[in-house]
């Protein structure tokens, strides 16, 4: 699928979820397996509006148990938005060593700031 198509689909999905009908709750109740399969994309979308609190809570419950497997080892981890990463780190139930979390945060930070010098003496 083209990136253009996925962007358009994300926009339409966001508009649907922002409607007054509570579609995010319907998605959770009826399509939890689909939400898990499309974790990264929908999790990012859940942070686009305050109306998606139910989706955020759904994913945060998953993340509390499987953070390392679902997020930190995903191919697109370094593309996560800062607010998404902060929400993950605020979860007090993370089942990872603190040193592992710091290693992943450093990788994320390096990906977000490619202009950093490789030689610390510079």
From TrEMBL:
Specify the species.
Answer: Gigaspora rosea
Query: What highest taxon heads this organism's lineage?
Result: Eukaryota
User: Pfam family example for this protein?
Assistant: BACK
Could you tell me which residue ranges the BACK domain spans? 52-115
Q: What is this protein called?
A: BACK domain-containing protein
Q: Which InterPro entries match?
A: BACK
